[in-house]
Design goal:
single chain; two-stranded antiparallel ribbon; binds magnesium ion; 12% strand; 525 residues; alpha+beta; binds adenosine monophosphate; 11 strands
Length: 525
Amino acid sequence: MNVTIENDFVGSLPADPIRQNYLRQVRGACYSFVEPSRAGKPRLLAYAADLAESLGFSVDDCQSDKFVDVFAGNSLLEGMKPFAMCYGGHQFGNWAGQLGDGRAITLGELIDTHGTRQALQLKGAGKTPYSRSADGLAVLRSSLREYVCSEAMHYLGIPTTRALSLVATGDAVIRDMLYDGHPAPEPGAIVCRVAPSFVRFGNFEICAAQRDVEMLKQLADYTISSEFPNLKRLEEPEKYIAWFEDVVDRTIDMIVHWMRVGFVHGVMNTDNMSILGITIDYGPYGWLENYDPDWTPNTTDAATRRYRYGQQPWVAQWNLLQLANSIVPLIGETTPLENALNRFPSLYQERWEQTIRNKLGLLDVGSKESPLVNELETVLMLTETDMTLFFRELANLDITATIASEDPLYAMESVYYAPSSISAKQREQINLWLRNYATLVKHQNQSQEERIAVMNATNPLYVPRNYLAQLAIDEVEKGNDEYLDEWMSVLKKPYTEQLGKDEFAGKRPEWARTRVGCSMLSCSS
Ligand code: AMP
Ligand code: MG
């Protein structure tokens, strides 16, 4: 394979001097060198051809045994110096101490065809010094979910880590899927994820917790010079303030995207927050089916629902506060960081209003429009309403007919989970909203085509619905990869209706309402 591996992260930051792979508390180092474990009988289940190409892998490379071996952790390319990062984090609101890459191993970096440095990281390739009580492995169901969703997010235009490959290891992994005392063997798998950096808020938090200001500064300077190069020449401490403001900005941008498409991360701990503002660590995530701001896919979070859909912006702000706390020593005072954090709500609101305007195809959210926008959430929650399909069908509404109709909801019935159980009163409320919406739209100075174009570019038709992921897992576990291939190709054009692909846009079927893996997921992955 004709690719040149680089090791900029390793070359720039302090390494743990211990080379043996055993559990430990690591101090004074950003990472530990560690070799991936061997996979028994690796099989390539899927790979992202366009990403591979941009990283310099030829089609022949991707189909070679060497490719499978490398991305199963069985072989290294020349120049790879694999390592696991040291980080800490706040989990469910509490400081959890050292966490680190317990089952992630970065192999090295490549410069892609855009000139961007991209790190390659295996997830599920065995134990590291940070594995704590766990095995360092990942099961097929969770690896497939990460592979599909990170690629889907990329094609949805949402900042994310990407997935280069999905390899079944051929080894069994024992998991107690629901933490209810029923451990069972499951097939293992490894995803190779790709991002310019895998540094998280927690990488800075661990430096601060260890009161290691020198390492904190080294990591911040490295991150700024490699990932925020336009800031690197600023004076100190302005450089760090501008950097934090940029991270706030990027994080808001990412969350607005999540809210736009109905994505619920499920485990927004500070160790799962990227310093680049990209979506990272796909675990018990989920997609809103019926619109419900209180929904969380994560059973581990069922009690307090800390990470529910509607809470995500405020959790992001809380996480940014933890990052701010840990970088105070670089700035020497808290005021500039507080100011940046205090701007979060208004910045978020401003961008969300623009997004909701686009979702509804409204040119303005002035005094006429805002009651309509304010009532939208109530209308979506009167009866189980599929969020994704609602916005797509709204674009298709015949505006003139809606204004004149006694029952405009009739044209939208397919977006409801139980249309026959909608009461007369609910129906009336929804109808009133639809007529008001159509009236506003009719008086906008915008053509029907323009409105539909904006709405359909904002509201995807194909999202990786929870039950579709489960169907893909069932098929791959049976040895059939075709369903996954077809679904992945549909997910590459999420905003474009594709002929004959209705099955990938359908509402959640009744059987999926209660099936584990469809509406309920645990952290057991
Ligand atoms: P998560 O909530 O999945 O982001 O994981 C929290 C921490 O647990 C991170 O430090 C992970 O690396 C670690 N972890 C999760 N699953 C495993 C596993 N199977 N083996 C080792 N470490 C794990
Ligand atoms: Mg994590």
